[in-house]
Amino acid sequence: MRPTLRALKLVRTIYGCVDVGCPPSTQGSANDNCTLAGRSFPYVGITRIPTGSEALAGLTWSKGFNITDSRERMFGSSYYLGSPPGLDLSNTGACAIFFHGVSRSISFETDPPTDETTQGTCNDAMGSACVDALTARARNLDIGDGASSEEVCARLRDDLEENMDDACARITGGSWRNLTTVALTGDGAPEPITSQQNASSNCWPVTKKQDDLTLVSDYQVPGGDLIDDAYNAMWAITPILTLFYPNGEDSLVDAADASLSCVKVMGPALASVDTMNNGTTEGEGGAASLSISGSYYSVLVVLISSLISFIA
Q: Nearest to residue 117, comparing CAs of 12, 268, 229?
């Protein structure tokens, strides 16, 4: 029996274009084109931030992947914070650390392995002991009085780089490398996408369309010409450590709240779905059925050769 869209949603930890309705690309019948404030992505992925605070419920991380060809080929990943409308973090310190250096050494265990549709949590990809060690290190960080979010984030990054938890040694090779740190609040913190910036958008990659989206980080690496290079870059898993801590009388949290989210872009492309029949069929209860056309590699070849997008 074909998997139903309803069944897929029940078990999902990461959502993709099929879930958020990415428009089809005009350059390839099997590809999507999610354009968001001047950036275009053939694939996106969205996962929630597993915070323990009720006041922070609904926060998400979204990732978009693209390939650009200007002077040289680049593989690009953009990361967006999704937040409920009206969420006020002005008196709450917050920062995010992106663990790009371990993307090649972690995976979601699936049988059989399918990098396009595989999903899970950081417990699956990194091991629960490593996740517990990292979140405990963040919660126990000596924040100090009067420190800015930028200073706190740098302090946390330094603590991670100078101390290796045994539980994480297997996936790091002995040290954390290629960490990107971004302060989410305070002076100079990224701001939500405005309606003016959104005028060119045809896509809003978040599961609740009323939520705000904030571009937090762009990660660009030189890209090779081999199919495998694009394949590995496209389906890479990015762990993101998100820390919130009290920074004023009206803070949303009373104590440090740290969590790890593992996000990747998800297939299939909505445009590659042959059928999405809402009619009731036996055994499916009327849920939409999915049939994926073609092989992944044929789609990837089209992506590399014809779906080159330019970041504005």
A: 268
Joined tokens for residue 75? 């593989």
pLDDT digits (tens, 9 = 90+) for 29-56: 678 889 999 899 999 999 999 998 999 9
Is residue 112 reached through a cis peptide bond, with omega within 30 degrees of 0 on the bond before it? yes
Lowest mean pLDDT among 62-71, 81-90, 301-310: 301-310
Q: What is the Cα–Cα distance from 75 to 312, expressed in whole angstroms?
A: 15
Helix (H, G, I), strand (E, B) or coil at 58: coil
Q: Which residue in this structure is represented by tokens 């059928």?
A: 275
| Ramachandran quadrant class, 260 (left: phi over 0; alpha: psi -120 to 50; beta: rest) | beta
- Give the least confident one: 5-14, 86-95, 184-193, 241-250: 5-14
Strand 60-69, strand 43-48: pairing: antiparallel
CA angle centred on 19, ends 223 and 17, rounded to 5°: 25
Strands 257-263 and 14-15: unpaired
Report the largest interatomic distance among the alpha carbons of the chain, rounded to a whole angstrom.
63
Per-residue tokens: 24: 């089809």
Q: Which residues contact 174 (CB under 8 A, 6 or more apart)?
A: 164
Select the more confidently predicted residue: 60 or 196: 60
